[in-house]
User: Fold this.
Amino acid sequence: MGSVPESADRAPLVDRLHGVISDLAQNVRAYPCSVQTDELTQLNRAINRLQAEFTRRTRILDQNQGWVATGALSTQAWLRRECHLSAAAAADRVRLGRRLEDLPKTASAFGEGAISLQHASLLCRTCEQVGVEPTREAEPILVGAARELDPRQLRIVTERFRYCTDPDGVAREVDATFERRYFDLSQTWDGIYFLNGMFDAESGEVLKTALNALLPPPAGDDHRSAGQRRADALLELCRQNLDSGSLPQRGGQKPHLHLLAGLGALQKLMGAAAPELNGQQMVPAETAHLLACDAGLSTDTSGQNGEGCADALSHMSRVVSGATRRALWQRDGGCRFPGCDRPPGWTDAHHIVHWADGGETKLGNLVLLCRRHHRQVHEQGWRLMREMGGSLQALPP
Ligand SMILES: [Zn+2]
Ligand SMILES: [Zn+2]
Assistant:
């Protein structure tokens, strides 16, 4: 380190930097696009350089224990208190500062602004995992990749490098990640379910591939968010498995939903007892109507508060029989909602006149609807009208 300049000489440097940043914050909307993109690229490089300088100074503070005079107990503690970094980010920064001393090419590319903080952290973490010698040997290639790739792509490169130099270490790490897997499904007091979990890379890919298979590109009228579409895909996955009957038996029965609803509730009569799903969850009449519509689930209309007038035998006739369903699949070939292209496997059999209102479970009164359109009809007030030629017209609420 050279001689320490007077603080009076140093302060204006940082002041000048703030002055330049203020000057940059002028209105650039009138600039040609090429100038805007050029400047953005340059700003990104400047941010990288500032991050490198911040890391270098942190390392100096760390070496000099400059934090002692401030009352902090460590460099990390000082970074958390004064710069509001998270504990992980502060520890990462201190580790990066120390490790960069072993990786001169990485430090130099970071200092030029050619690679970002994330790139530099990734290379330093790789060095910690693999060792200094092998990383320094491969450093020209790794830094070359970091200059060209985004951090996610660079992670693939560093993982391959690790695999070549330390296959046992990679295997141990994969095992450790697999052991940390978990999946929680918890219900709040008002009935909402929350999912929370973590999967190792391979299991995550299995989940993603299965969900993506049920996530076709959004149609023009599909206004669901990406999160809503993923949630629907997960539910579809579960539903198709329940419907297929291929799940193992529990208590001598195939797993299924159990809806307890009086006929009055299905007919949406005032004062009817609230329908219940699986004996605990109250559901609105519209949802019960939807669930009972394709009675592939076991529907019990008898006995609730004595108002049910259907016995189990007459209920059986309301279940869409295998033969009727096959004929429906053949006739409709998928969802019949105008403009929808969902295949039969994604559909329910919908009673145009609900059986609770006297509609028959016969081909003439049934159409296939995908879950989304089935929900639109029962819960959002869309109406289906049969036209002369047999096609369906959908009337919005
Ligand atoms: Zn229906
Ligand atoms: Zn549909």
About this structure: The pocket of zinc ion (ligand 2) is lined by residues 335, 337, 340, 342, 369-370, 372-373 (CB under 6 Å). The CA atoms of residues 82 and 121 lie 22 Å apart.
